[in-house]
Amino acid sequence: MTSAGRPVGVLAVGRRSDRAHSPEDVTIIADIARRAALAIDNAQRAQAHSATSHALQQALLPRALPITAGIEFAAAYLPGGTTSEVGGDFYDVVPSATGGWLATIGDVCGKGPRAAARTSLVRDVLRVLFRDRGSLLSTIGSLNEVMLEAADPAQFCTLAAATVARATTPGATHLDVELVLAGHPQPVLLRTDGHAELVGRFGTAIGLVDRIELTRTGHRLDAGETLVFYTDGVTERRRGRDEFGSDRLVEVVAGCAGMSAERTVAAVRAAVESFSTDLRRDDIALLAVRAAPAP
Known about the structure:
The protein is of the alpha+beta class. The protein has 2 domains: 2-54; 70-291, 4-Layer Sandwich (Phosphatase 2c, domain 1), CATH 3.60.40.10. The chain has helices spanning 23-59, 113-133, 136-149, 232-235, 245-254, 261-275; strands spanning 2-3, 6-7, 71-78, 89-95, 101-108, 157-166, 175-182, 188-190, 196-198, 216-221, 226-230, 238-239, 242-243, 284-291.
């Protein structure tokens, strides 16, 4: 049976043909029906809330990553906890005024509507400030001021931000990358020979203190080399007392030499998911930037 387009449960109660239901039977039946109706209503509400949370989470991520000559971008996002919770992990890739790209990945503390609101603020302010200034250090410093104005120390953010530009030297095919880490884990740089290492220097997380200390580091990606960003849901993925950890991550990335950015992200995701079957308690975000080999 259906009502207003939704399924309705049917409760059938048997009795002997020569005996009517007693008042006690009616009371029990009514109580069972009430409990069943409440359970159905709660399930429908939970489903609607989950769908809303999913839509909100998708709105915090780019619909698609850019497709551009000489550079490959790939990303993945895995929610932690229940599907009704909106996480604070995000990634983004936007063009710069100079013809390059700003690639970012971050983790806003907490879950739920407050974290979603702060994640949206961080992403949008980053886009506006960087397009206006073009400087990573200046952009992140101003973002810190914006977050402090909210006066909510529980809603801080870690961030890895990198400018990616094609080499300007005639005939060169490599990418020039400037990287800043604001309290965020170091990305993994994969060379064509399979050597992988963590790069970048740690800095202060955003939204905690007035004066933050950040260091900009420069890196070169030759054709076929990849920079893999991630959130701490990767390295802190647990299997009992064991963590996935940065060493295991570097080892997995090292095995991706020669792979496209998309395949590299898929390989890291598969390794993290197969590491543990426990419920994920934290979000996972991955972003790979690769200097595409010459065709």
